[in-house]
Design brief:
Order of helices and strands of chain A: HHEEHHHHHH
Number of helices of chain B: 5
Distance between the termini of chain A: 70 Å
Structural class of chain B: mainly beta
Radius of gyration of chain B: 22 Å
Number of domains of chain B: 1
Strand order of the largest sheet of chain A: 1-2
Largest sheet of chain A: 2 strands, antiparallel
Chains: A mainly alpha (178), B mainly beta (568), C alpha+beta (338)
Helix content of chain B: under 10%
Largest interface: A-B, 37 and 49 residues
CATH architecture of chain B: 8 Propeller
CATH class of chain B: Mainly Beta
CATH architecture of one domain in chain A: Orthogonal Bundle
Helix content of chain A: 40-55%
Structural class of chain A: mainly alpha
Oligomer: heterotrimer
CATH topology of one domain in chain A: Cytochrome Bc1 Complex, Chain D, domain 2
Distance between the termini of chain B: 27 Å
CATH superfamily of chain B: Quinoprotein alcohol dehydrogenase-like superfamily
Shape of chain B: globular
Number of strands of chain B: 37
């Protein structure tokens, strides 16, 4: 009996050894397939590529990808217009209000192709994988419920509750007057 | 001030210094009568953004210029009622909304006789027939894909139109250009960085301070290639002195904000230029801050006046600096006669009048990856380009001020054309004592305020001194106030629907009736320096304004509305 | 006997061979490294002698035959002469320890003190650590003569070099054993390290503080050149990137400035002005790419651009999809950037 319990314990502890997979090298055909989103005619909403579904949406749930997204957010000057999600010349990303849709495909299209009111296209500045990483991260900025995979507080200046504390969870503001 | 200049242009002829005798309007609005001001008419612009352009007077028309996408309304006042005479809607490139650092508004047209000269945010300079609003010519003055915008009104200097580009946040190479007023044909272009030839520095260049000499300093005071995207925008006030034949303009801060990416003196950013209006050749330059650490842009208000200074009659240039000092310069030579702080300042210890150098505070220097706390003033600037006016009657300089400090943490910025090239985390702070804003009546000779009115929030609307001894200004919480010009006593106030972020305008209708008009319309919760969709829970939102303005209730309707007041 | 022979004839020279070479603290090539090497030698000799003496005393104590012991009936009886002798031995040992420890402290202080002392005007070079590469900026009194490079520090022989060390992300450490001791690069703090190379040569350096998954491939070389060669090289580095010599290189320049490359890398003289990755203006003039991972050849450049995550998994350079022609062109262009 004791021995069996010990065995079960040991197996249970082994499960704890499994760490999250970091996919450091995305195969070029997969990367190319990930670019094949099917947005609707007005560019808002649409179907993600089949491979995105087959992979299990790794850019929304994988801590490494979300962390890379946070790095890219600073590196590629997103902060210059959107600050830490509060917005400046660009709209806020944490107020739960999206001009061009909050789903991954809309965000992917916004980043890749740009939007007519000033959002530049990052097609020639980022790779498909990087754009997906940013899409995942940008979603955590305005997330309504906390997720443990989201990045924790900034190394730099503290500006708002960390992404994994879901700042937008509390008192969602009313849509801005237009 | 620009309004006054426009008024003088329209009423009294070619631009003159403030003290020069002009046909000033009759002083009917006085401290005694101002209590009787009544609202006579309103006009909604239909644009939800922050309205920073003051209404302007062109003959018997009142011009209202909305933020981007622009509409220019020419209104006529007939028996106390507003009637739209004509409207002009230029085609707009919507992509400009992504490269406009600080709101979508800019000052309205310059008036030149029967013509209006208009700058649009997306880089067009347009000449209009003032009577009909028909465009006469339209030339591109700024390239939006490169991050350039236009943020100031064109300046009419004789038969030339002077235009400067904005975009320090996008790593532009600032420039100022002259166009032929009749045709829009380009005459000359001068840059704020680069070789002496590009900058317009030649044999006639005689700065007052030796440190502003040096061959090709616009290249050698930058790391290799840094000057090509070094900022130095010409986005503030432009000023013309027809007697001296000079045009004065400031240059914006060097780009990026992160100082460690641009070792050197960063010439000719963060300074003031005097240029020959005919050729664009630089006459003198004064650098407000060499290797600028705190965004000491030269884009604050510029005014001119001729006065006795320490017993000598001098031609003065007044610069209300983003460094927090009121500079008094000799506009013939570029000598700094006085520089005294008008808001709380700790980023610098003062200005050394012998060398012209801004004396840095050792504990407020900034560097990459390091947070410097409680630096005053904030990078957002204590004053806006239209935020100061001189009164010929009292001799005082009235300044609408923001008294903000900041925490600043420079970070690396990478240059990608058309995206922000800033490189700093910013968080605005309250000043160590006092409120977030104030109307300051500044005594130039004494170098200190004659009086100050503290306001809870930054003051961005005004001021407008009237000959009768009344100063009007608007507050961020939506009050239009009239105060005594000599004592700062509040004489009259009226609550409007939205915050006021543009100076009020005074004008006299053809029938002799006097009006005060003001545009209300603060835009979003964080005002004109941000778009409508901001979330102040982020302390760094709108260049850190989120940190101090997060408790301020957003306006129910921040869109533009013109209010017209008159004595009964 | 044969074993001892083997040890003496083969293993010892082999081990001693490890003391020389381009990355050895025991083969100093400059005064700073020399004083450290001297310190290592002094410590080794003194501590070795102490160790030997202690071992001898322990051995003697273990092996000594017990003499006529004390009378068993008076175990607590004291023999004053014996006690005095014991006291003297303990006192001597304590004194010797004090003298030795003090001496080692003094020479250690003097040796490390001499590391920061430099004679003559130093060349100031800024070294910034990134995950996982080094940014090298040669400063000058005139900012337009600042040169930014990566993963290779060139220094003039005989002139002291002051490295100003900083880090962008995590703590790194710079260690070029043949020239100087270790010094950490810490985000938000400034550190300095001064050294002088006395002989021309190539000395390998390494990140000596674990800094992430590719810590092992974060190396760089210090190339010591005669002063005139160094000056000529620095002038060359100040020039803009070489203009393409043929159509293939011209096509490569188009790829480098039009594709994602330009967002992260600077190639002066082209629109590429990114500062997230190494400056590539003169990339082909450097000995290695990817922080000592591969030698700089057109082939290795192509391999790196085609699949950076295969060569150095986890590094921050993404795999940018390029056609075969584009890859050929851009590698030709990179290889031409001498």
């Amino acid at each position: 009996m004791k021995r069996r319990a010990a065995l079960v314990m040991a197996v249970a502890m082994l499960v704890g050894c499994q760490r999250e997979q970091r996919d450091l090298r995305l195969d070029p055909p997969v990367a190319a397939a990930l670019d094949q989103v099917a947005p609707t005619a007005n560019g808002i909403g649409g179907a993600p590529p089949d491979v995105y579904v087959a992979l299990g949406g790794p850019y929304e749930s994988n801590a490494y990808n979300l962390g890379e997204g946070k790095r890219l957010y600073t590196w590629f000057n997103c902060k210059g217009c959107h600050a830490d999600g509060g917005g400046a010349s660009g709209p806020a990303l944490m107020d739960g209000w999206w001009r061009y849709g909050a789903d991954p495909v809309s965000l992917f299209v916004s980043l890749r192709d740009g939007r007519p009111n000033g959002m530049p296209a990052y097609r020639d500045k980022l790779t498909t994988e990087q754009i997906w990483q940013l899409v995942g991260y940008v979603q955590t900025i305005g997330m309504a419920s906390a997720t443990t995979a989201a990045p924790s507080r900034n190394d730099e200046m503290q500006s708002r509750p960390a992404e994994n504390r879901a700042p937008a969870a509390a008192d969602l503001p009313t849509p801005p007057s237009r | 001030m620009a309004l006054w200049a426009a008024l003088f242009l329209a009423v009294g002829g070619a631009g003159r210094a403030e003290d020069a005798p002009g046909r000033a309007p009759a002083a009917a609005i006085t401290p005694e009568t101002v209590r009787g001001l009544r609202l006579v008419s309103t006009f909604r612009t239909g644009n939800p953004q922050a309205h920073v352009a003051s209404p302007q007077v062109a003959g018997d028309r009142l011009l209202v210029f909305t933020p981007f996408p622009h509409t220019l309304f020419a209104l006529k006042v007939e028996a106390g009622h507003l009637r739209v005479d004509w409207t002009f809607r230029p085609d707009g490139n919507r992509m400009v909304e992504g490269v406009a650092c600080c709101g979508l508004g800019l000052p309205g047209p310059a008036v030149a006789g029967d013509r209006l000269l208009l700058n649009t945010l997306d880089g067009h300079t347009i000449a209009l027939d003032a009577a009909t609003g028909r465009p006469l010519w339209d030339v591109p003055s700024a390239a939006v894909p490169r991050g350039e915008t236009l943020a100031s009104a064109p300046l009419v200097a004789g038969d030339r139109v002077i235009v400067g580009t904005a975009g320090d946040d996008f790593g532009i190479r600032g420039r100022v250009a002259a166009l032929e007023a009749g045709s829009g044909r380009p005459l000359w272009t001068r840059f704020s960085t680069g070789s002496d030839q590009d900058v317009g520095i030649g044999p006639g260049f005689a700065p007052f301070y030796d440190r502003d000499l040096g061959r090709d300093a616009g290249v050698t005071s930058w790391p290799p290639g840094g000057w090509e995207r070094g900022g130095g925008s010409v986005s503030g006030t432009l000023l013309h002195d027809p007697e001296l034949g000079l045009v004065f303009h400031g240059t914006g801060r060097p780009a990026p904000i992160n100082p460690d990416q641009r070792p050197g003196g960063n010439r000719w950013s963060s300074g003031l230029f005097a240029r020959d209006a005919a050729t664009g050749a630089a006459r003198w330059f004064y650098q407000l801050a060499s290797h600028d650490l705190h965004g000491v842009s030269g884009t604050g208000p510029l005014l001119m006046t001729d006065r006795d200074w320490k017993g000598v009659r001098r031609k003065l240039l007044i610069h209300v600096g983003l460094s927090g000092y009121v500079y008094v310069l000799d506009r013939v030579t570029g000598e700094v006669l006085s520089a005294e702080p008008f808001v709380p300042v700790n980023a610098s210890r003062g200005v050394d009048l012998a060398t012209g150098a801004l004396l840095r505070s050792d504990n407020k220097t900034t560097r990459i990856g390091t947070m410097t706390r409680d630096v005053c003033p904030s990078l957002t600037g204590p004053v806006t380009p239209g935020g100061a006016a001189l009164s010929p009657e009292t001799g005082l300089l009235y300044i609408a001020t923001s008294r903000l400090c900041m925490d600043i943490e420079p970070r690396p910025a990478t240059y990608m054309q058309g995206t922000p090239f800033t490189g700093a985390n910013l968080r605005a702070k309250r000043p160590p004592n006092g409120s977030l804003g104030a109307l300051v009546a500044w005594d130039l000779a004494a170098g200190k305020p004659a009086w100050t009115i503290q306001e809870d929030l930054p003051v961005l609307g005004g001021p407008l001194p009237l000959p009768g001894g009344v100063v009007f200004y608007g507050t961020y919480d939506g009050y239009l106030k009239a105060v005594g010009a000599r004592d700062g006593r509040v004489l009259w106030q009226e609550k409007l629907a939205s915050g006021i972020v543009a100076a009020p305008t005074f004008f006299t209708a053809p029938d002799g009736a006097q009006y005060v008009s003001v545009l209300a319309g603060q835009g979003g919760a964080l005002g004109p320096s941000a778009g409508l969709e901001v979330d102040a829970r982020d302390a760094t939102a709108a260049r850190g304004l989120g940190n101090v303005l997060r408790g301020v209730p957003p306006p129910e309707d921040g869109g533009g509305a013109l209010y017209l007041f008159a004595l009964p | 006997m044969r074993l001892r022979h083997l040890i003496v004839s083969v293993l010892l020279p082999l081990a001693a061979g490890g003391c020389a070479g381009s990355q050895s603290a025991l083969d100093p090539q400059g005064p700073n490294a020399a004083s450290l090497a001297w310190l290592i030698g002094a410590f080794t000799i003194v501590c070795g002698i102490v160790w030997l003496l202690v071992m001898i005393v322990v051995g003697v104590a273990l092996l000594r035959r017990r003499g006529a012991a004390e009378p068993a009936d008076t175990p607590l009886a004291e023999d004053p002469g014996r006690e005095r002798r014991k006291g003297a031995v303990v006192l001597a040992a304590v004194l010797a320890t004090v003298v030795i420890v003090t001496g080692l402290t003094v020479i250690s202080y003097l040796a490390t003190h001499s590391l920061t002392a430099a004679s003559g005007e130093p060349l100031v070079v800024r070294l910034r650590g990134y995950q996982w590469w080094w940014e090298v900026t040669y400063t000058s009194p005139s900012p337009d003569r600042f040169v930014t490079s990566a993963n290779e520090i060139r220094v003039p022989v005989g002139r002291p070099v002051r490295l100003e060390l900083s880090a962008a992300d995590v703590i790194h450490s710079f260690w070029v054993p043949s020239l100087a001791g270790k010094q950490d690069l810490i985000p938000g703090r400034d550190n300095q390290l001064t050294f002088t190379a006395e002989r021309p040569g190539i000395y390998r350096a390494q990140c000596a503080e674990f800094c992430g998954v590719q810590h092992a491939r974060m190396a760089l070389v210090v190339v010591a050149l005669p002063p005139d060669e160094f000056a000529a090289w620095l002038d060359g580095q100040l020039r803009d990137a070489a203009t393409p010599a043929n159509e293939e290189e011209a096509a490569g320049r188009e790829v480098a400035s039009g594709k994602a490359c330009a967002a992260c890398h600077t190639i002066r003289g082209t629109p590429a002005a990114g500062t997230l990755g190494p400056d590539l203006t003169h990339v082909a003039s450097r000995q290695t790419i990817a922080a000592g991972t591969l030698p700089t050849t057109r082939g290795s450049l192509a391999a790196w651009i085609a699949d950076p995550q295969g060569v150095k998994p986890g590094n921050k350079m993404p795999m940018v999809p390029l056609s075969a022609d584009e890859l050929r062109a851009v590698s030709a262009y990179m290889a031409s950037l001498k």
